[in-house]
DNA sequence: GCCGTTTTCGGCCCGACTGTTTTCAGTCG
């Protein structure tokens, strides 16, 4: 499965970074491992395959040393150098560095001087007043660490992008009455639309910064005010999420927005480029500071095009911007319809007519009705007879609409033997067929892959729904040979879905990018069961943008005729 | 540990904030 080893080694490299940092190694050596971890996490190729083809050293940031570590891991399942470096330092000692306010210096100091081996012992030592005996430690620091421990135990809470959108909407709405605010915009990983965010950053320009802060710290649902200065405030809200708000001068708004949007790696690379040009990027004072009212000023003064936030992960976007080759990215206005939703015919909450009415108001030209097929009893799947009745209803409704069309369709279950839950004669009649795995094996990679491949080779299947089956934080992706699947999808002219429901987000960004690179067309579906989730299309758009997929590779940007043609083309190709 | 049309050695992003200090170290983003 693509990414299996990538992920494992990425985690290993990150731990290696922690370990070296704890031991007080050269920070650049530490960073080299951190960087390697990130590279492996975002790599769209299978590391095992690259190693087999002798291409490890072609990856920027992987040198001879780390290449050896990777080969080591692939051969033995562990990394020799890691074991040597680690010796008898327990993992629980390294874990102390995860506490906010405790870094490598403090963690290794208390380990060496006081023999503290884990967080519990650290807590006890503070309570017994032992920590303040160490130089550099005082009562404030003790208090800070105790609070950090408490926070860490409550669970490092990352919020999924879906709920984050709702929260940001709510905060912006709450801040609206403050007259002093001129501009207000979320920055950080939310603005980059990462699938989960660790905190929310909000950037403001205002005539009266104090009025803004004073209002902000009274936000309902607040648990704690972590800090409230003249221009910056941090609060903690329910769910243990931190929200930072900063007020900056209008003249440096663009530079600040750039800085606080990140990613860190993207900014590091920009500063390197700035340094070469004798410039400085940043929001703070400096001789040759690039100030900028607009964010595009920053990028332009560095000799490149403005880069959409979703691409700012230092995975090649800077080079593209320098060459003026940033691709146009998907926007809501490009979308002509939604291609996955459920009605009262199966487990949806609303009758077809209401779904149609709602999506017309969103400005869509079409909507595919894709209820479940018969085998999926838990979701009240439709029998063949039901489906025929539903097709009749859709055709009758379509006669009422102008400039809007309902597509007949279904989310057909892929059965355990890889066959489809309806016979071909029925699938043939439908405008849009999604084939989905709803029950799959957690172990049988080969079996899962074969079922998907069988569906892809069915001439009437338009797209594969929520391919990997993951439910973020609840269920891991089912193991499957992603590359073989992408290849088959590209060859047969089968689309793959970007499922936008907030817990699925499946395909995820890295996979969507890989699929696009391999020539696959993507379809977007909200998998709506209740009309308030049609708005989750913005999650799908986020994935497509982070994947760098141009709009014309997304089925939903096409006119209806072309979607029909897509299905016909596949049928022509596969039926002889 | 990685990298190189300034370098195979000597660099590697950088400033704010906090607490403990009295000139600075550690942490964070």
Short description:
The protein has 576 residues and is α/β, with parallel strands linked by helices. Helices cover 44% and strands 13% of the residues. The chain has five domains: 4-86, DNA polymerase beta, N-terminal domain-like (DNA polymerase, domain 1); 93-153, 5' to 3' exonuclease, C-terminal subdomain (DNA polymerase, domain 1), CATH 1.10.150.20; 159-247, Beta Polymerase, domain 2 (2-Layer Sandwich); 252-322, DNA polymerase, thumb domain (Beta Polymerase, domain 3); 332-574, Metal-dependent hydrolases (TIM Barrel, Alpha-Beta Barrel).
- Strand order across the largest sheet: 10-11-12-13-14-15-16
Count of structural domains: 5
Measured distance between first and last alpha carbons: 32 Å
Count of DSSP strands: 16
* Tally of individual helices: 24
CATH C-level name of the largest domain? Alpha Beta
Average pLDDT metric: 90
Q: Identify the CATH architecture of the largest domain.
A: Alpha-Beta Barrel
Give the radius of gyration. Answer: 26 Å
Largest sheet: 7 strands, parallel
CATH topology of the largest domain: TIM Barrel
Overall form: globular
The CATH superfamily of the largest domain is known as Metal-dependent hydrolases
Contiguous uncertain segments of 5+ residues:
283-288
Approximate helicity band: 40-55%
**Class inferred from helices and paired strands:** alpha/beta
Q: Approximately what portion of the residues adopt beta-strand conformation? A: 5-15%
